[in-house]
């Protein structure tokens, strides 16, 4: 029996084996895939690789017969590099210890913005219907800020006005100790760019 020269290259998902069998007849080439073995037959020429270094999926493994070589693509059952075609190591899939479930990561409590919005909208409804039915959200928010401003002390009002004007409407602060020290920086929403319009 003639032996066949072959070489391979691999990725984490697939191993490609090139069998150099010049002028192979596609009708006479047979490739048999098993989970841990591969058998190539073409007339008197054979190549048997067993046991393969890792387990393959026979259903997803394929081959193509070319003029100078036959390309055999082995679909790996487990991702990772083999480093060799054959190996007498036990089947990697049967020796992997059962992975313990990862410890759940504690989640930080999140602010219930929908609840806050609903509360603002409810307050707006109590204050009377808006003339524009589509302006409900804006009217409610404006009403909320008007109420906040009306109930605030002098420093809070100054902080609100200064932060809103200097930031071009991108920041609203109620902390005069912070706002009073320096000009308030413009902070456009993420993905937006701030541009000052020429008068």
Automatic annotation (TrEMBL):
Residues 187-199 have a biased composition (Basic and acidic residues). Pfam families: CS (PF04969), SGS (PF05002). Residues 102-199 form the SGS domain. GO terms for molecular function: protein-folding chaperone binding. Residues 1-86 form the CS domain. Residues 93-102 have a biased composition (Low complexity). CDD domains: p23_CS_SGT1_like. Residues 93-112, 122-141, 160-199 are annotated as: Disordered. This is Glucose-insensitive transcription protein. The lineage of its organism: Eukaryota, Fungi, Dikarya, Basidiomycota, Agaricomycotina.
